[in-house]
Amino acid sequence: MARIRLGMVGGGNDAFIGGVHRIAARIDDRFELVAGALSSTPEKSADSAKALGIARSYGSFDEMAKAEAGRDDGIEAVSIVTPNHVHAAAAKAFLAQGIHVICDKPLTSTIGDAKALEKAVAQSKALFILTHNYTGYPMIRQARDMVASGQLGQIRIVQAEYPQDWLTSPMENEGLKQAEWRTDPARSGAGGSVGDIGTHAHNLACFVTGLTVESLAADLQAFGSGRSLDDNAHMMLRFAGGARGMLWSSQVAPGNENALKLRVYGDKGGLEWCQEDPNYLWFTPHGEPKRLLTRNGAGATEASQSVSRIPGGHPEGYLEGFATIYNEAADAIRAVQGGADRGTAMGVLPGIDAGMDGMRFINACVTSSASDAAWTTL
Amino acid sequence: MARIRLGMVGGGNDAFIGGVHRIAARIDDRFELVAGALSSTPEKSADSAKALGIARSYGSFDEMAKAEAGRDDGIEAVSIVTPNHVHAAAAKAFLAQGIHVICDKPLTSTIGDAKALEKAVAQSKALFILTHNYTGYPMIRQARDMVASGQLGQIRIVQAEYPQDWLTSPMENEGLKQAEWRTDPARSGAGGSVGDIGTHAHNLACFVTGLTVESLAADLQAFGSGRSLDDNAHMMLRFAGGARGMLWSSQVAPGNENALKLRVYGDKGGLEWCQEDPNYLWFTPHGEPKRLLTRNGAGATEASQSVSRIPGGHPEGYLEGFATIYNEAADAIRAVQGGADRGTAMGVLPGIDAGMDGMRFINACVTSSASDAAWTTL
Amino acid sequence: MARIRLGMVGGGNDAFIGGVHRIAARIDDRFELVAGALSSTPEKSADSAKALGIARSYGSFDEMAKAEAGRDDGIEAVSIVTPNHVHAAAAKAFLAQGIHVICDKPLTSTIGDAKALEKAVAQSKALFILTHNYTGYPMIRQARDMVASGQLGQIRIVQAEYPQDWLTSPMENEGLKQAEWRTDPARSGAGGSVGDIGTHAHNLACFVTGLTVESLAADLQAFGSGRSLDDNAHMMLRFAGGARGMLWSSQVAPGNENALKLRVYGDKGGLEWCQEDPNYLWFTPHGEPKRLLTRNGAGATEASQSVSRIPGGHPEGYLEGFATIYNEAADAIRAVQGGADRGTAMGVLPGIDAGMDGMRFINACVTSSASDAAWTTL
Amino acid sequence: MARIRLGMVGGGNDAFIGGVHRIAARIDDRFELVAGALSSTPEKSADSAKALGIARSYGSFDEMAKAEAGRDDGIEAVSIVTPNHVHAAAAKAFLAQGIHVICDKPLTSTIGDAKALEKAVAQSKALFILTHNYTGYPMIRQARDMVASGQLGQIRIVQAEYPQDWLTSPMENEGLKQAEWRTDPARSGAGGSVGDIGTHAHNLACFVTGLTVESLAADLQAFGSGRSLDDNAHMMLRFAGGARGMLWSSQVAPGNENALKLRVYGDKGGLEWCQEDPNYLWFTPHGEPKRLLTRNGAGATEASQSVSRIPGGHPEGYLEGFATIYNEAADAIRAVQGGADRGTAMGVLPGIDAGMDGMRFINACVTSSASDAAWTTL
User: Fold this and answer.
1) Which residues of chain C have a Cβ shorter than 8 Å from any chain B Cβ?
2) Single pTM value for the model
């Protein structure tokens, strides 16, 4: 089947996440990157495009959206990998042209932008896919499947956490570009750690359990001197249906790189998973010994095998999980192009709804914390 | 040096914790168990005493306190290992006779009892030692020492948890004696999981960091059908001085046996420790690789070595940590008998203050949860 | 820089390793797969090529080598991913045309074939690269670097093992194609587990330590009923310079997927690494605490960082390690095309020498075992 | 039941293993230590006895054996915890008096001594128990039980290892007493690492599998400069019945404290256990997920529960495993005193046969290595 013609907004120079998206798009060979508006100026963009072997470079996403829409061989989809505050405007430009959008998370930097984008998605026929990449890990798919099929029984407790340590020292004052924009409310939005990584923990908890957070009580802190956004957040969660949870996000916990961890307990069993060792899933049927399920190993279900590439014991990693989002995005795009309904085509892919959930989550965290951790509805 | 003559209240039949105290008292050979009021009736007590080779058996702790105080070779100390609601009365009986008390935790089942006991301790010349046994683990001693000496810098974050799974099913309705009294407010007090195990997590967090919890916001749940005490508790903590924390206690998390875990993060480094693997302490100086410190191994400090018995790589366990409390209790008793001040003699041993902290903790948890998790001062 | 035009021999249908090579070639975007002789018949080859979107399909590698050599836009390099007994003939066909060869391991199925291939490599100007892919793991690069820079001191002990469990039951009698050819001497060569996975352990031990195995004493077993090739092998190793080692390969050890593990000990320190958790490297400077080095984390050296793609804590896996071999093959090919010397261009890439070492290793294993584990020189 | 009156030979001053035996004898409260010949001179012995609160001190084991045999309240059993070369003479002295002997391992320092001791045991009515303490670990009992009941099927492969690192540097030249006698052939016997720790690995492999090593091929090294005994040993094993194995013992592997590890694989499943984490046993039924069995947890069998003291998740350690040997020795002594047959009374306790096996193992290692690793019958 022919590869999907892809464009990219952002991701020039040494931007981390742009490179990740490009590798993810290549791994399963479903996309061909042919156009880009990679940087903030036409010159930089052209330089980056040339270095990456991308055929067509544009000075802005607006220019790109219009020009590509006018070509017979124009892009069918675009990846948006800019800082958060640019997501909404860029996505709207492509959606308006009927070009499918694959957008990095969180959705936007403000609730206002998010609502406008939600409307734009509703009015477009194109797909909007949000790369909540951790949902692409095979053992996360299996965990979701096991919860859905009742192997844990009624879910009671959800423990989610995403600690990092890279902002323990004030890196934003030492010229680290990543640290600068992620600690800047104007570019990141109202949430610091809650926006950047808390949203991943929240998304994963909901994805695996199939539950929705109804309300939360959050206590946000900015430990780094002079920092205006939270770099550590503690919160308690109440899920629809009675389950309860805790969520911790931190950028100031020395010894943690990207230790996203999810633990789910029901009245029949428990599951534990950590992103840093993603090929393992611990499962305890209550009253039986703990089992170490492995990707594509004994005990792997169709849900995880279908998104695995290589045998058990040969670890897949972050890039393969990310690639699964792209692979499924390709399936969805081809399905919609073939006449399928957007909702059906999306399958388990995170989209605008997951994005709005994330925005409400960030907003609730900030609102709750400002009210001394009062319970706040999402 | 001569062994200390010891009595015991409770601990007859197959009571779990009584046997633990007896082994702990034997390991370092500092005590001789010579008297007991082991059960609720004189007959059962006598049977248990005989089976255990204990010389003198009494029908009640009152009788025992008076009789032993009147003997030249009477007990010097007593271990109280009954259900929680008996602690206060038993302890007061021995303190009144000047007999040193080693009491299981939590302190009592009600705040009223606790305050009365606090007064009795103040009025006695005898020592009151509370067996917060996890403080006896060598790597916990080392962790406390490392925090105190500044190796973690200013403490910012404390993550404490103690999940179990034994009450996932309603064991209290199936004849399990342990489950019966631990889920009964009349015998356990107002706290369920928070009283039984949450207090351990709270105590350990304070012991290691040297910090005090000022207030907490708690959300308690009783997931087990028909259960009146919490079997799962989520809470956020605010420590004096600005550190923040989270604490989770649970008796309904399948796959967890006694997974007490403490993680402490400062601006210079982080520590992680788990009770199920107690000979290890993870230490990350910020910006350097994680180090696996082992009991009596390379990197062990005087604080841990002095309470270790055997070389690194030969694991010590729960009973040895418990024995260290007894060993230090023996030191403290001999010191006080030799004229030392009570406070000085106690050293790092947990006593009435730690017990009152625990009671205030339980009370605050219950109060906060009843107010929809409002911040509650301890 | 333009992508290298690549062909492939083998890898049609559902052959495992062909798919791996294709992903590995794509990840860093240095190759474009444009031609193939993917299966044993022209029809099957054409079907596979079409399914994979490969422009030109050939009925045999001979036909392909000649045809591509004659095109201006012919392939610059070829990946050979057939069963072992085809490697030599296919490689020689392309080397004869000056087309660079990237060949799966082990080198060939017989020593005779290996020697002929060695001669063909010597007579060609093209590169010959053997995909000993585990050498591409970042922490393996770091381990090699740390040994070379003296951080372990004089190497004394090497413990290498590669246990699997997939042949515990007689899968070859149950229609599993992988199991059929890997247990067939005609297609796999004289070594069973020693050829398929023992060679990986041997290669990795030598790659990391920089040492050569002088002699070995091997005890090979075929536990599977009716199996003619070894499915389990025990051996002791003597390295040049005085280091000693052990090596275990097994396909019949239940609970092991691909548990390739290397441990190296010198008089100043020790290293431990396992393929199933490849982002970690344990390092103990003698007399100091164990350190957990992570890929791209604190303590990562240039040797590992330069072959990493994403931040520490976001796991890379088997495919990324494999991709590094392809990425460096691309560098080497461009360097040679630019006039560089073949040896210089190869850098740390495994080539014909590593392949011959592997063949001598297999041969010595079989010879030694036939002589009741007599010491046998490689 | 009354405690058994116990004496001790060796274990004065700061001798490591003597203190371990004393704690082990106390933990289950079955022994009362009443006599000792603790050191090499009467004065030192008396000082040690006084410090330990032991009632009767003797200047030599001969004196002690005779004197105690003559007392109505004389010792019923004696623990021998001297360096290896004293074991035989001391044991014979007590056996001759009908006093039960609990002896540290290895049996003796020479085969001649061992044979003489074997004869003495045969001629005595007293029990001879060798403290192969690792056989007392609950999960080792469970492993043995699982193999015996066929859960692993036909045993094929045994991987045993015991690496340490304490002799990496030449500690014996730096005044460390432990290092001095353990590297001295006159006091330790012909085996260095093979005698001190290799015997543990060998014993455990046989204890768990129920198999006997028929022959071995060993390559012993003395890496430490000037060291005459092996400090590292590699060997291959052939068991009666067809199973094959490898064994590694080392005192020079930095990063290993007491990493005794046993892995056993049959045609139906595999087991893995490590002494440093003794409360865990990994079990993989072939084709199913790996299970983490825990001491006294879900999946624990009678074989492990009956030698456990506390609930799962509360770790027991080295001292409790050692105590189990003492507890069972007490059972055996009381049984024999009650008229039971010696063999029946011993149960699974290691005795003279296990000791002779160990001596033959050491001898075979040394003999094989001297013949360039020729297969040598035990």
Assistant:
1) 283-284, 287-294, 297-299
2) 0.96
